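Re: the request from the purification team.
They wanted to know what the chain is likely to look like in 3D before they choose a buffer screen. I agreed to run a prediction and write the result into the notebook, where they can find it.
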Amino acid sequence: MEIKRCRDLTLIERAGQPNLVIACDSCGGIGEKPQDQIKVPAEVVGYFTARVSLMEVMSVGARVMTVINTLSVEREPTGEKMIKGIQKMIEEVKLPITALNGSTEENVVTCQTAMGITVIGEVERESIKIGCSKPGDLIVALGTPKVGNEIKLPIDDEICSIKDFQALVKMKNVKDIHPIGSKGMYYEAQLLASLNHCEFKSREATGVDLKKSAGPATAVIFSVSKEQLPTVESQLQQQVKVIGSLEN
């Protein structure tokens, strides 16, 4: 067995078995409690925090096995609301509810919302979508980077939809996929390039703020050949924008 770190993932290579892929995320100070800095429904907190780790694991082609929540709040009423949001996310990616387990804080009264999520998946070594790109490939953005109150509730059509994200993962002509978090698209594009022994060359006047936080993975970037981009676009409901390319 060999354990590696890549991007925000832990990869566990097992002889004769699929690789394990593990991702985690946390959220604090966002919710319904008195000392939360951003006031949003607890269900929304659960939904979007689960979204991040699920997208990280699925982005490399892994099948999700289990989702574990660690809620630093009481089960009733806040925890139940957060779990409802997590369950909604799980159902959206078509996982059984039995994949979910977790814990709540029942010993101490809390005045601020906090939680963590861990997602575990598996993928065959030869099928993992990491380091699949080559010089000349385009780097393309799907979704608008947003964070906190910028996200429209209950539905924001400007952020990357789970439906389009899952469609990307299934496309054989789509190579590397990186969900975008707090470090922004430029950071992830440079990382994607580095993992493929290339350099990222950004395009001018893309209309996208490449350094803006995308919060709970409201946007993703992916690599695709110039020739295959029209085919990819035709299979997505949302618009994409080319933000750059890979060079030697």
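For the purification team: The mean pLDDT is 95.
Please add any questions underneath this entry.
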